[in-house]
Specification:
Methane Monooxygenase Hydroxylase, Chain G, domain 1, 86% helix, mainly alpha
Amino acid sequence: MKTDRDKAILLLKTGKGQIDAVLKMIEQERYCMDIVNQILAAESLIKKSGMLILKQHMDTCIKKAFENDNSDEKIQEIIDILGKVMK
């Protein structure tokens, strides 16, 4: 069974391949809408990997912080990152 970390790595490697393909498409002066679609696909993979990493953080670090009565700092981390996500 793959962990969230493993899934995130796979998504990012796939996204990296898509970004390389986008660069090649631009250099080859391919149709703009095809390029934009590939950029959107890569963007989606990056976002999904970010959510997996955030989930892993919440499953491990956040739980541990609550067990050790050190939750205020971790809650602020989550609030800060959610603020960035919602921009």
